[in-house]
Amino acid sequence: MITDQNKWAIIDAYLAGQLDESGRQAVRQKMTDDADFRADVLMQSALNQQFDREQTSKDYDLVDRLISEGLTTPVSSGPGRSRPVRPWWQQTWLRAVATLLLVAGLGWLGFRYLSGPDTLSTQIPYAQRGFGVDGTPAPDKLTTFPVTFSTDGPASGEYSSDPDGLHLHLTELPASEARWQLRDDPQQGGFLLTDPQGRTYRLDRDTYGGRKPLVPIK
Amino acid sequence: MSTSVPSDEAFVRQIAPVVTKTLANEFADLPGQAAAAILRQTLATCLIIRRKATKQRLNPSLFARRVTREQVLSWLAADGSPAQQTSAMSRIMAENREAVARYLAQFRFRTTDVADEVLNDSFAAFFTNLADRKPVEALLSTCLISIARFKALHQLRQERTDPVEQTNWLETTFLTVDEADMGTMTWPLTTADDEPISIDLPVTTTDGRSGTIQIEVSRFRTWLADCFSRLGAARQLLFRLRYKYWSEQELKTMSMDEVQAVFDDLDMTEIAARAGYTNAHTASVRLNESRSRLRDCLTEKMKNAAL
């Protein structure tokens, strides 16, 4: 029987897929009969999804960091005998990357002349404004935000935004999109975007389908 | 001889050469920016799969090659030339249709036409996700089966009148992937990406009227994220640790009595220690208080929405 005392353990087990069939039936029945219990399950389910998204965001952060570092540092295999490490310029993978970059770079140049604007969809670091228990400011929550770069903008750059993400219209795709950063604008309620050169732009959260110029804040 | 699980960083460093080599050798004609984006997405996807899958017996190199190829296919289906898109989508269907159909065979639909419809709808939804630039963060087969599961449950909800059946979309089920070359793992099919558009929740308005309010899931999530951000860091940590504890448990099914007897005290003792509370009871009390605060905050938002 599900009681106030055991319900959270049962909800956790239910959502984690670890309840047996009779337990699952009991939870389903309780959710049907008791709207408050249903709200509890939905709340915990939504929280779990939020935590999973946070963890996924950390996975991307780790990959971005390692890529920006060149993934060149050899990995220690722990205590004991370690494998000899070849110099970085003799690493097979580096040759592979160099070949890839050369071949793909030539392909990309050809592709640019034969096709329309290039686009790059990615996630950039996003510092989401936090609030304390009583609404007072709290540390920002670090997460990511979906951004699409495309090469169909003027030299000064333009942007468009909506609840699904940000679109930056530039003359060329950025070489290091991971170094673009976004944070909430505490003054005007929109975003503050910082490019790899350190310039900051104030953006609206939603341009309702239109484009606006990227103008650095002085 | 003892074997240790490499850290996330060591794992990424281990598979990165395989991914770059696969891209260089097998997909050298990709545009440069695409190769960089696929490299990033492949490494992240491998990391996510490694974190979420249980009972893993995977050959890291073959696993990384498999994910690389699938990420290239996904990119081509969304961003390739028209001919590449058609070819990639055909290949994705050819390679996964049988597995999805086999999974759907466990559901009893009214007619076989309905089963075919669910199968085709699942692929259509997946390709729409790709076109919308939704990242593929699992093996293609598990992504497709996850979508197919939701489509099947949605179809059965429409066919049946039993309200109890209408809640099982929240449940996590598990899928065993067993492939001769790559290895085996168990993948959780969750509702993260495939929940219904809206949910019904109880609400009492400021003038005392009780009823239910239909809320879009995305809106509910935004409310909850806002309410959660208002909790103090220590209380947030309790929730996170509890989720981490449950998501890392070895997979097994238990009765409600076993859950209560074995897990509740045990996990709170461990969580209390990690969150800096003196004992499990104090941590439990704080957690329950925090849940009440979350519910109150959500209730307030629902009241305002119901006005």
From TrEMBL, chain A:
Entry superkingdom: Bacteria
Regions crossing the membrane: 93-114
Alphabetically ordered keywords of this record: Membrane, Transmembrane, Transmembrane helix
Protein name in UniProt: Uncharacterized protein
Organism this protein belongs to: Spirosoma sordidisoli
Organism phylogeny: Bacteria, Pseudomonadati, Bacteroidota, Cytophagia, Cytophagales
From TrEMBL, chain B:
Cross-referenced InterPro entries: RNA_pol_sigma_r2
SUPFAM superfamilies recorded: Sigma2 domain of RNA polymerase sigma factors
Domain of life: Bacteria
Molecular function as annotated in GO: DNA-binding transcription factor activity
GO BP term, pick one: DNA-templated transcription initiation
Protein name: Sigma-70 family RNA polymerase sigma factor
Provenance organism: Spirosoma sordidisoli
Lineage, broadest ranks: Bacteria, Pseudomonadati, Bacteroidota, Cytophagia, Cytophagales
